[in-house]
């Protein structure tokens, strides 16, 4: 009896619980259910979907334009038109478009073998851009005008160069050429270095074994490729007799541009020693010489300098052409008159300098002729003579004053500019003094050796 009562009570409890649960679900539809706890151990696989109200923008994807680049160069005997005609993909209208546009800034008569060009065409072989490189320092571009005309225009581009100011040094063994070759510098630097001391040293006769030289020079690079030398900032030559020649480059006001010693004296004098800086002396100034052809002993009041036929001969000083023509045994000869009563004579020439004639004005180191063997001569050489009044002088023994001497504020400015170079030479721990980037603007002219 007691057991049946217990079972009845339990059954009633379950029935009442079920009824209460049903009633609570019906009456609690507006009540918020507790959130379902997140399961941390299960990673989220799918990103949260965006609400249906958000409309994503569809961006159309267009294929990138396909360009064709055509590279070419100028060959011997080429015109630009001929060079372009070798490229089959460049149509005649495009070729004319390029030539017409470039002619506004490029003189086609100055084209050189090795000049390079690039032409960029679109998918329909229409011109996009053309670049013409007339050497490392001249780049010309043809492309559409940025304005509304949409026409093709040309321009000269600015050039980006790297300038390294570096130190060099060497020792004489046989010749200045060989000494510079040993330190892996080319002949252009040899000539420029010798030219600095042209009024003080005759590099035909004076250099001796173990003479030493050094300098600081600018070297220009484009895309890591060496393209040439700039200014020689410092130059020094030490001779075995103890003579020391040195000069610092200085460009100042009033057209001052040259190399000066620390006393402010310009290294260049009114006369250079030799009109052939690298000729070989075959006969010196003497009052008794046996003539190589006639055998007669007589004075030779000049210097004979052997050099290959066609070697340029330069004026020893500023002057005026007094004579240019054939003069007996001297063959083709040029005579220059200079201030102070000086005259210089240049004989056995093969030909004269461009535009040279009687009455012409010439500048020091201007080319006035070329080595030859005209007249009475045993081979290509220059007969060079120097005369003051009525007396011939030994060109290699004559002494001349500096062309200019710095003073006052100009001298102070010069000394200030030499400080960094002097400090570098005294405390030098590496070969490079400086490395700079230089942008050469289209209107600039840059002289590189």
TrEMBL record:
SUPFAM superfamilies for the chain: Duplicated hybrid motif (SSF51261)
InterPro entries for the chain: Cell_wall_metabolism_enzyme (IPR050570), Dup_hybrid_motif (IPR011055), M23ase_b-sheet_dom (IPR016047)
Residue span, M23ase beta-sheet core domain: 299-395
Protein name per its UniProtKB record: M23 family metallopeptidase
One GO MF term: metalloendopeptidase activity
Cross-referenced CDD domains: M23_peptidase (cd12797)
Keywords, alphabetical: Hydrolase, Metal-binding, Metalloprotease, Protease, Zinc
Highest taxon of source: Bacteria
Pfam families in the cross-refs: Peptidase_M23
GO biological process: proteolysis
Cofactor(s) of this protein: Zn(2+)
Cited PANTHER family: CELL DIVISION PROTEIN YTFB, PEPTIDASE-RELATED
Residue runs in coiled coils: none
């Amino acid at each position: 009896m007691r057991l049946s009562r217990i079972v009845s009570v339990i059954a009633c409890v379950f029935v009442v619980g079920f009824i209460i649960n049903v009633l609570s679900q019906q009456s609690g539809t507006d009540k918020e259910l507790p959130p379902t706890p997140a399961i941390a151990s299960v990673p989220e696989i799918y990103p949260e979907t965006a609400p249906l109200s958000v409309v994503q923008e569809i961006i159309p994807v267009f294929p990138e334009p396909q360009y064709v680049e055509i590279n070419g160069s100028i060959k011997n005997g080429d015109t630009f038109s001929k060079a372009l005609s070798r490229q089959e993909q460049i149509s005649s209208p495009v070729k004319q478009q390029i030539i017409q546009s470039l002619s506004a800034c490029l003189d086609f008569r100055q084209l050189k073998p090795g000049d390079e060009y690039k032409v960029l065409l679109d998918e329909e072989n229409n011109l996009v851009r053309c670049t013409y490189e007339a050497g490392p320092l001249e780049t010309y571009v043809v492309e559409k005008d940025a304005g509304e005309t949409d026409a093709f225009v040309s321009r000269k581009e600015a050039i980006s160069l790297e300038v390294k100011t570096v130190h060099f040094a060497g020792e004489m063994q046989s010749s200045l050429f060989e000494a510079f070759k040993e330190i892996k510098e080319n002949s252009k630097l040899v000539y420029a270095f010798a030219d600095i001391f042209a009024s003080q040293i005759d590099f035909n006769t004076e250099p001796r074994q173990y003479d030493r030289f050094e300098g600081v020079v600018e070297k220009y690079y484009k895309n890591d490729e060496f393209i040439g030398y700039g200014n020689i900032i410092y130059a020094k030559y030490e001779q075995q007799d103890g003579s020391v020649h040195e000069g610092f480059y200085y460009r100042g006001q009033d057209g001052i541009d040259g190399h000066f010693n620390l006393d402010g004296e310009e290294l260049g004098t009114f006369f250079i020693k030799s009109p052939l800086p690298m000729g070989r002396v075959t006969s010196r100034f003497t009052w008794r010489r046996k003539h190589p052809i006639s055998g007669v002993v007589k004075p030779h009041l000049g210097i004979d300098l052997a050099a290959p036929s066609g070697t340029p001969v330069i004026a020893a000083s500023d002057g005026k052409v007094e004579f240019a023509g054939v003069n007996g045994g001297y063959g083709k000869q040029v005579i220059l008159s200079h201030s102070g009563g000086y005259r210089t004579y240049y004989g056995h020439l093969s030909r004269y300098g461009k535009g040279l004639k009687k009455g012409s004005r010439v500048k020091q180191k201007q080319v006035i002729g070329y080595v030859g063997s005209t007249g009475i001569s045993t081979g290509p050489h220059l007969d060079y003579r120097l005369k003051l009044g009525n007396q011939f002088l030994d060109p290699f023994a004559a002494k001349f004053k500096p062309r200019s001497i710095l003073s006052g504020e100009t001298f102070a400015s010069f000394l200030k500019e030499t400080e960094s170079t002097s400090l570098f030479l005294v405390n030098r721990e590496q070969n490079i003094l400086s490395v700079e980037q230089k942008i050469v603007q289209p209107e600039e002219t840059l002289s590189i050796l």
